[in-house]
Amino acid sequence: MIDIPLVDLRAQHEQVADEVADGWAEVLKTTAFIGGRQVAEFEAEFAAYQEVRHCVGVGNGTDAIELALRALEVGPGDECVLPANTFIATAEAVARTGATPVLVDCVADTGLIDTALVSDALTARTKAIVPVHLYGQAAAVEELRSFGVPVVEDAAQAQGARRNGVAVGGLGDIAATSFYPGKNLGAYGDGGAVLTSSDELATAVKLLREHGSPRKYEHTVLGFNSRLDTLQAVVLSAKLRRLEGWNTARREAAARYSALLESVAGVTPPVVLEGNLPVWHLYVVRVAERDRVLAALHAAGIGAGIHYPTPVHLTGAFDSLGHARGDFPVSEAVAGEILSLPLFPEITAAQQERVVTALAEAVR
């Protein structure tokens, strides 16, 4: 039985339960389930937190990436450069616009997109670069902006993270984030948002998320139905007021893991890219014989996981890209060794010590 979970959503819920219940009662009383004032309030709060002018709530994180791309008029015939080491949603959103995902390898020590390889992936058809802020730390977006191509940040794992003092969401031209329940800022269901300081791009996303309709029964463009529910906005506002404290707790837990792992041979701890202030959505180590080690941790009651076991180019969904094993060797090597250890704001030192003891025994 797993008694130290990978993520403990129950502990987080207990801290906001009363506030959420009161907020939901108000929504139920007014029946403003779609487009209630709480949505606009959360959008304003989160935009201020991420230090951008606009937050546009949408149905989920994958929609957020797609709508951000469509706001930049990405479509059939275009290409978007992104890392092979990411959750499939990044590439999926590109493909849903009709554009082609162009993959590049990652850096071994951080897992982030290798910015040195991006220039070789750019063509006359490149319409956007989509870096992923993986595991809670930012990619080197400033290096990508030097290419003069719009940058769409996949910030689903990095709410509150900073790079060189700048909050994610404001590093590129436009950003997408997810409020999937397990994220640092998670809803009680699906949800997402697009972030930007561009009035023009924000207006485009607002139009697209609402059936291409600037007002009821007027449809100026072909749009989508992708809106953040009022009930979820209540949850997110309650959690947002605690997010900075939760992220601080995650940093303390990550530092504790790193200190405990200094004496453990056979485990490579994560590396923070210079200039980054991560929020540690995940604490990901690398080990040999990962699957055996993972099974041993599970047998010991430790809820470790893998993020992500298969690079995009090796998934059946993207066979059409024509890649084969060996095309992105670093991403492939990383995928075979990565192991996510339990990490959540409420994790105790005793729990972490037990995780590291079990991990040391497994790798030994």
From TrEMBL:
KW Nucleotide-binding (keyword) present: no
GO biological process: polysaccharide biosynthetic process
Gene3D superfamilies listed in its UniProt record: Aspartate Aminotransferase, domain 1 (3.90.1150.10), Type I PLP-dependent aspartate aminotransferase-like (Major domain) (3.40.640.10)
Keywords: Pyridoxal phosphate
Source organism, top-level taxon: Bacteria
Active site: 183 (proton acceptor)
Residues recorded as bearing N6-(pyridoxal phosphate)lysine in the entry: 183
InterPro entries: DegT/StrS_aminotransferase, PyrdxlP-dep_Trfase, PyrdxlP-dep_Trfase_major, PyrdxlP-dep_Trfase_small
GO molecular function: pyridoxal phosphate binding; transaminase activity
Recorded family membership: Belongs to the DegT/DnrJ/EryC1 family.
Record protein name field: Pleiotropic regulatory protein
Organism in which the protein naturally occurs: Saccharothrix espanaensis (strain ATCC 51144 / DSM 44229 / JCM 9112 / NBRC 15066 / NRRL 15764)
